[in-house]
Amino acid sequence: MTTFERRQRLQFLLKTQPGIRVPELSEALDVSEGTIRNDLRALADSGQLTRVRGGAVLRDGYQGRSPAFSARAKANAEAKHCIARWAAELIEDGDSILLDASTTVYHLAQFLRDRNNLTVITNGIEVGWELAKNHSNTVILLGGVLRPDGTSITGLLSEQFLKDLHVKTAFVSCSGFSIEAGLTEVDFQEVQLKSNMIASAGSVVALIDSSKFGKVDLTPFARTEQIQCLFTDRGLDAGPMEQLQRAGVSVTLCEGDSSSTFTPRQKEARHYKIGFANLNERDPFPIEVRRGLERAAREAGNIDLVSADNQLSADVALDVADRFIAQGVDLMIEYQIDEQAGSRIMERFQEAGIPVIAVDIPMVGATFFGVDNYRAGRLAGEALGRWLQTHWEGKLERLVILEEPRAGALPAARIQGQLDGLQSVIGPVPEEKQLRLNSGNTSDISQAQVLSALKPWPPKQRLAVISFNDDVAMGALLAARQLKREADVVIIGQGADRRVREELHRPGTRIIGSTAFEPELYGEKLIPLAMKILEGQPVPPAVYMEHVFVPSDDLAPAAEARGKT
Fold it and tell me: Closest by alpha carbon to 57, among 84, 35, 76?
């Protein structure tokens, strides 16, 4: 197939098999996962689909039975997509949620295709249908009267059922909203049902595109003070946002590559605006870092967190820095990959008098936070050495070193730590047996590099792989899998992110373990560190995370036995 034909076929698969993931697309189209991701990025850039974790959804999304619902779903679709994409970040595996039958919440459901074990209570038939496609979810349709358009249920049976429920979060939208009237709807029966939904929920998240602000419909179903979080698009004026903050509502302004969360105003505490430039918004690790920061900022109560995506690009990171300076942030949390660009970024923030915390990649003049690189590497290297002793008599034909030169000397210490840890167990690995490859910090580039390296080597060569991070480790695994040579390789990771933790549970995996950096906990340590800097308190030049090595399920019993001796 040509590139055009492949992308047409890819869109057809997304339409006919909603929820299909990158590995399945790769197999169906007989190309690498890296090629699929490149296709998805190109189609997203052209506006034909929206990326979600693990795959994508088509922009024309709704393929249901009601023309009226379809028309509403497509109205302000861009804003609804952005709102749904960022609001979905609040929902984790295993959550219990209430979802109304609105088109904005239907968009939200499309971003939950990779969440598992959800308990979903909804009056939206299309919403329920979308989430029931994942068989791990429990979807409960509220009972009552089916509306004529066949898309939702209302009535007293639903209200009686809701009275006995205690659900974590309700996600709702409306036909109109004002600070004074709250959330309003045109249909009285819908209002009664939504009121009962809100009464059954521990917290309420409102998804409202800016076109609905200032509009008051027939009757309200929730007061403004009943809303904990409100997600909207960048079209919202400053006046309503400030009113919402004074009313105790956390407001998130959403756009394609960034979001800004403005927390309620507290009279007794000074309010700060903190910028966060993320490494990228594709890979699990930086996404977990951003989520943890958002949670911690909300809990702090006096922080507005403005986020943007550095896209693994030095040029983009410089542009993002200029945007944050123009917005007048009080402090910057910078997560970017290029050590040389870091000096130019830091110079700009210093000229603007803005303090900086550098995450994982050091920047001269910034407070460092993140990985204790050498120790993290050493833990994994020692585990790899023990595996080689047990399974390959301590011998190997080649050691593949997937590094990232752009990151500079300090992150390179995690590669050196792995090498030293390995050699402390099996002895020196001669230089001629070492192959250093530039991983590019992504699974796509790593996969391509390892594919190219593996092809000329004869089968049954024993190849050990040490990695800059988990994305790189996954790339090496995918390359070996593509060549049907998994038995020839053993791989260790760095980070223990969500994707690799899932792989570690797979019987027979060739990724034998990864050092945990716990990105989900970065936020709860970063925000207190930022507050100390903002309040003029002394802080150390570097703050490190604690690390443990997480073995695969195959190795876990042996690791536990060692821990007891």
Answer: 84
Q: Is residue 540 part of a domain?
A: no
Tell me: do 139 and 197 sit in the same domain: yes
The DSSP symbol for 528 reads H
What CA–CA distance (Å, rounded) separates 411 from 338? 11
The answer to whether residues 196 and 69 belong to one domain is yes
**Is-contact 253 259, C-beta < 8 A?**
yes
Cα end-to-end distance, the chain, whole Å = 58
Tally of domains in the chain: 4
CATH number of the domain where residue 33 is located: 1.10.10.10
d(CA 56, CA 48): 10
- CA dist., res. 493 & res. 278, Å (int): 21
The tokens 């909300």 sit on which residue? Answer: 298
Distance between CA 533 and CA 258 in Å, rounded?
25
* pLDDT tens per residue, range 339-381: 888 999 999 999 999 999 999 988 999 999 999 999 999 999 9
What residue numbers bound the domain in which 50 lies? Answer: 3-58
- 203, part of any domain: yes
Q: What secondary structure does DSSP assign to 286-328, as a single string?
A: HHHHHHHHHHHHHHHSSEEEEEEE-TT-HHHHHHHHHHHHHHT
SS3 469: coil
The H or E element containing residue 489 is strand 489-495
Residues 84 and 178 in one domain: yes
- Indicate which CATH number applies to the domain containing 261: 3.40.50.2300
Cβ count within 10 A of residue 24: 15
Residue 343 lies in a domain: yes
Residue recorded with tokens 């036995």: 561
Count the neighbouring beta carbons within 10 Å of the beta carbon of residue 503: 19
Query: Which residues, 6+ apart, have CB-to-CB distance to 101 below 8 Å?
Result: 122, 123, 124, 125, 126, 127, 151, 152, 153, 190
On whether residue 457 sits in a domain, the answer given is yes
In the predicted structure, residue 226 carries a pLDDT above the cut 80: yes
User: What does pTM read for this prediction?
Assistant: 0.76
Answer whether 144's CB lies under 8 Å from 158's CB.
Answer: yes
